[in-house]
Amino acid sequence: MPTTPPTNVAPPAARRARQWPGVVAIIAGSALVLGCGSTWYLTSGGDSGSSSNSKPAADASKGGNDGGHAGQAAPPAAKMLFNQFAPKASSDGGRVNGEWLTDKVYAKTGFKEITGYDRASGAQLWKLPLPTQVCFTTLQSTADGVTVIAYDDEKRPTFEGVGDCTNIAAFNITTGKMLWHTSTPVLGVSADGNGDRKLWVDEIAISGGTAAVGGGPDGGAAWDIATGKLLWKPTANADNCQDDGYAGGPALVAVRRCGDYSKPSLSVQTLDPATGQPLSTYKVSSAFRDMHVLSSKPLVVGGSPGEGSGAKVSDIYSIDEKTGKELAHITIPDEKYAIDCKKEVGTCLGPLAGGGKLFLPTADHDNASPDAPGHTNEFVAFDLNTGKPAPGRADAGDGRKLFPIRMDGNNVIALRTPPYEGHSAVISIDGTTLKQTVLMELPKDDKVLNLVLPSFGIRTDDLLFDKGRLYIGDRLTNKASDEIEGPHYLFAVLGTSY
After folding, report:
1. pLDDT tens-place string over residues 196-220
2. Is the separation of the CB atoms in 371 and 392 below 8 Å?
3. Residues paired with 495 in a beta bridge
4. CA pair distance 132, 415, nearest whole angstrom
5. 180-207 in b/e burial notation, b at 16+ Cβ within 10 A?
6. Cβ–Cβ < 8 Å for 253, 268
7. From the CB of residue 398, how many other CB atoms can be counted at a distance below 10 Å?
8. Phi, psi (deg, nearest 5) at residue 102
9. The pLDDT of residue 156
10. pLDDT of 7 strictly over 70
11. Residues 69, 75 contacting (CB under 8 angstroms)
């Protein structure tokens, strides 16, 4: 197998470091009181959306629940372990989204290829060439380390332009072997009459041995991951029902839309992954135009009453996935919480659920100290059985921000960005007390590290943390940015040792 030594060099001196961005988009929307479950407004009980009514943050050097680590041994200090520069883009945008982990391999999408690297050394283990660039991926995979990607239909020699996102492939993350590839189902004749129109992939969800893809108003389709067999595809019926899309993970959940697309009847269904048959159904209020799955298990959904991809979640519901019964209803105040949802069903960033609780990052707001530069945010939690706010909160601290990464059992793993001067860190937020433990500190005096971190436009789905290592992956190459700043990183791996 070919091997490539890990790259560990600073970028050209000419590049300008990009700034750490704010936490994901602010939540807005109407405060609706809907449904028959318990209803609580997110305006009390540990919520602190602005500095005017929040307690001053404690000094991090003194410990407390603001990101300090009093009472624990000094956390390990990370260093750059290995990284790679992104390929040169020949247009204003090229997609390189997608990264995965197994016990032995870190895999990352590049331009028309996916490469696997040894998690211990960073040496290249395999390379999977693709005919076109990848258009959609998912962090999810099967128990035996197989994931599914979508890639463009049209072959193009450079980043210039994109084709239809209509090809599906499954590959083994450990070996890099492609297991099968196919095209999405044909829906009819294209608008220009020049051939068949296929289902365009908008999102991918994996649960059990099934990969389901959402195609928005065109409906959804699914494949058996082991064989590539098509399990279901969009089918017209008298009620004009289609699946808007899917969320995967420990369960497969669909949002189903019936009737007029502009005035739909929506439902949330937990599906049997092998057949697509609903195991339970939750009827959505007619007040909502779109529904998003924030967690498949426990089942938590968010409703958007407005139109378009910029519509905000205004209400959150927890649902018994076995019966479809509503458990609790939580209403979101306007611009209070950081939940970033696109039009697709399973693509919301920000909320995490586990241990009977929903964890929400607040939107950016002023620091407790008016003299501190920048902004801050915090995490709060809510009981999924009652909707009541849980006591406590996890403060980022003045000038710091918390980016959720994933659940770790009942706890939350998050990245805490640095203030104007200071350390960034990977932290664990206790799911019961919301107290923080620093798992790994990123040094402020590492010249290479300080150049790498700002080069990424950090989003929750760019971050992986496992076994004491933080993996940050890029999703887009940009010619204009490269010409001004110099090459940027395709990925960086930070940790304590090789």
Report:
1. 789 999 999 999 999 999 988 889 9
2. no
3. 79
4. 33
5. bbeebbebeeeeeeeeebbbbbbbbbbb
6. yes
7. 25
8. -125, -175
9. 52
10. no
11. yes
